[in-house]
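[Solved] Which block belongs to which protein?

Original post:
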Amino acid sequence: MAVLIPAGPGRAIMALLCVLSVATVLTACGTSATPGGAAPAGGSSNAQDVRPTPADAASLAPASAVSDLRTVVAAALPSQAIDTLRLIAKSGPYPFSKDGVTFSNREGRLPRHSSGWYQEYTVITPGSSDRGARRIVAGHDGGRFYTDGHYASFHEVLSGVST
């Protein structure tokens, strides 16, 4: 749609008002600038606290470990990792096409299981122009593992909620 702005002294003001109107409409519609045009991982981008409640945490990770790896409580992870755990819990939608692909555990840092046991998911890294080095790897037994070093090491993620 073309907007005609009449010539004359008020032209700059009219152009500015048009730009502001479009920006207001886009903001009200919740337009996103995240990779792939997806909504921000885990929901809205408002200023609410992203730390999980106990009930929320219980859906994000198991209460007890499934491995002998070092552990981390979900609430201690970066907010983007909590967002990714929430997406996994509700089966997407994911911001990257490679999210949910099989993680083959070639490095052998996670417990050994048959092929297809693990799936990997991107943890968005603010300021990164690509997927970055942070991932959540999910096992079929509910195990969740976090790496911020592109598979160099992992922590098993626990809910922090007693069962």
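(Second protein starts here: sequence line, then its structure tokens.)
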Amino acid sequence: VRLIAEIKKTTGKYLSVMDFFNSPTIEEIAVLINGQEGTASDSSVIPLQPHGPKVALFWLNDTSLVNQLDHDQPLFLLKRTYHDLLHSNNSSIESIAELFVRDLLVFQPEGPYMLGGYCFWGIVAIEMARQLVEMGHEVSKLIVLDPSLRCLPVNNSCAAAEKRDGPQESRMIYHLRHLKQLRFREKTAYILKKIYNLIQWPVHTVNRKLAGQIRKLKNMTCRAYLSLGYKMPHEMAKSYYYSVNAKRILDKHRAPVYPGSIIIINSDNDNYADKNWSMIADGEVLVHEVPGVEHLNMLRESNIGKWSKLVKACLFETQAHKLDSGE
């Protein structure tokens, strides 16, 4: 980070951390500073922990597993810039997965492959694994961290989140039924809480509408960048990608059943509790839960260790199996 600041101060050029993964030598960094971007590597495969005798793990989009795995466990990042991902050619889970699979096969033509990713990128990892298996390659491990419910088959009625807010009449009936089951003190506390929420409702409504208007203005600015062919700043492109493109891509995605086995690591989320995850794959589906960690906090530094140890155990199991089988 200090090096990035010094380069910007001296040359006026801003390089991202990803640039140093893509261009790990002084010569390649010099090329980037001089603006000759075409000579830099165009692969989405970035070495994070490249050495070791074990089967490599390819993790999509985030570097959360750096320093979490054994030192002899090869770890590679699969990542593209959000500017690349906003290109019209990458407008579906299938096309994004195809892009990464192409880069992966150039980097490592033969399996077995171990893949994983978080949330949206977990669904991309599933599609990558499906494409690799379809090509005749072996996927020995597929680890999905807190995936969107859209990875479930559409006939599981989980392709979209359920709406909690129903008609006012049905909500009133629900509250009355609930009150009947409570004691007097509990009824009083319940009613006071609902009155407080009712008072707060206009404030939340105004804040939500204001945030919505700000989001619309930001998205209009981003669309102007795209229509003019300009490259958006990283944070702007990232925000636009997840608030617009990723949602649009997920809305139209209909995930086929994966022919192999999957390991799912879920956050502490009530929406996941009653889902039939076995429908996601023909093979075995193992589900692990990380209690006390919410979805949006999974990649916080304080929480990574809580789920990365599960990933580490899964990888150890794979390597032990290979040793037992003499491979």
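Accepted answer:
You had them paired correctly. Confirming on the second one: Confidence is low (pLDDT under 50) at residues 36-40, 155-167.
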